[in-house]
Amino acid sequence: MKVAILGGGGYVGTNLTNKLLDLGHQVTVLDTFWFGNHLSYRKGLECLPGDIRNYGDLLDAIVGSDAVIHLACVSNDPSFDLDPALGKAVNLDSFQVLLRALERYPPKKFIYASSSSVYGIHDGEVTEETECNPLTDYSKFKFDCEELLHNSKGFEWTIVRPATVCGYSPRMRFDLVVNAMSGSALWDGQINVFGGEQYRANIHIDDMVDAYVSILNSHLHGYTFNVGNENMSLNQIANTILGAWPTAAIAVTATVDNRSYHVNSDRIKKVLGFVPRRTILDAFRDIGTAKHTGSLSAPSSKSEYSNIRKMKELLNAGPL
Questions:
Q1: Nearest to 122 by CA among 264, 262, 267
Q2: Which residue of 150, 168, 169, 239 has the smallest Cβ count within 10 Å?
Q3: Domains parsed from the chain with CATH numbers
Q4: Does 257 score more than 80 pLDDT?
Q5: For residues 313 and 239, what is the distance between their CA atoms, to the nearest angstrom?
Q6: Which of the residue ranges 131-140, 169-178, 206-215, 266-275 would you say has the lowest mean pLDDT?
Q7: Quick check: 178 and 299 in contact, CB under 8 A?
Q8: Distance from C-alpha of 14 to C-alpha of 164, rounded to nearest angstrom
Q9: How far apart are CA 109 and CA 107, in angstroms?
Q10: Would you say 238 and 181 are in contact if contact means Cβ atoms under 8 Å apart?
Q11: Residues 166-185: what's their mean pLDDT?
Q12: Are 86 and 51 in contact (CB under 8 A)?
């Protein structure tokens, strides 16, 4: 297939792009590359530096594509809060423009990356049927986009609500919970825990990529899928990493971030037969291997390892 990935230069997008190329697909990546371009030139790859806020850039990427995978956004609440107007323009306003483009030049399949943060705080397990309770503008706009997609027509679509992704990517992020704890353990000998009792659903980046591939190869329309694996409290995650790196110590700090949810991902298993094969421990080991081989440097050494640090730099240099 010819696949357009909006945000294909990001943390997940880079790995997904490489996977699709490995499988023989043609891939067009549209990305601002604010965090650098970590894609190597390969046969079948077209990189388009551009912006999803620009209708012309969107058309350049999607026209003639068999499938469009939309990963691009201002990701996570702290980055979003740096410039709420920018966050709204990228995460919500541009989505409405994208839907118009998709209806005019419909692909066979459209996959939208939403977020499990749309659930907000729930004491029990959440399924795709659970009422969403987004608590921040970032998660509210993700849910708004889902609602807009439900009203679109003319193409096959699927919504994905990923758990918190972990593991190694050439476009690395150390501001995700497992990655952050892994980085602080490996480089500083300290596993930093903010709060501790909150539950998070986690998914290894290679499993996340495989989930997108499974959906891409399916013939589904109108489905929403949770994609997660291990539901653990932050304390449990820290102790898992400590078990693999016992020379580290756990340091707990209070937090105001009380988001907590236990995500059920049975639907994608039942419908597509998709079962995650990697664990948080695998993610930690992959990051450790990348450190050992020199593919990664200390989390504090590069601003691009943290979305909020890099976004602050970019915004200080001028409007985006």
A1: 262
A2: 150
A3: 2-317 (3.40.50.720)
A4: no
A5: 34
A6: 131-140
A7: no
A8: 17
A9: 5
A10: yes
A11: 98
A12: no
Altogether, the residues listed in the chain come to a count of: 320
Cβ-proximal residues to 104 (8 Å cutoff; 6+ apart), any chain = none
CA trace torsion 231, 271, 124, 133 (10° rounding): 100
pLDDT of residue 120: 86
Copy the structure tokens of residue 147.
Answer: 């609602």
* Residue at 159: amino acid letter: I
Contact 167, 204 (CB under 8 A): yes
Alpha helix stretches (DSSP H) within the chain:
11-22, 55-62, 77-82, 84-88, 94-104, 137-150, 177-188, 205-216, 234-244, 266-272, 280-293, 307-317
Q: What is the pLDDT of residues 51-108, one digit of tens each?
A: 999 999 999 999 999 999 999 999 888 888 899 999 999 999 999 999 999 999 999 9
> Could you tell me what percent of the chain has a pLDDT over 90?
91
At 207, the amino acid letter reads D
The crossing angle, in degrees rounded to 10, of helices 280-293 and 234-244 is 50
- HSE at residue 69, side-chain half, CA atoms within 13 A, is 28
Among 122, 116, 248, CA closest to 182? 248
Phi and psi torsions of 27, nearest 5°: -130, 130
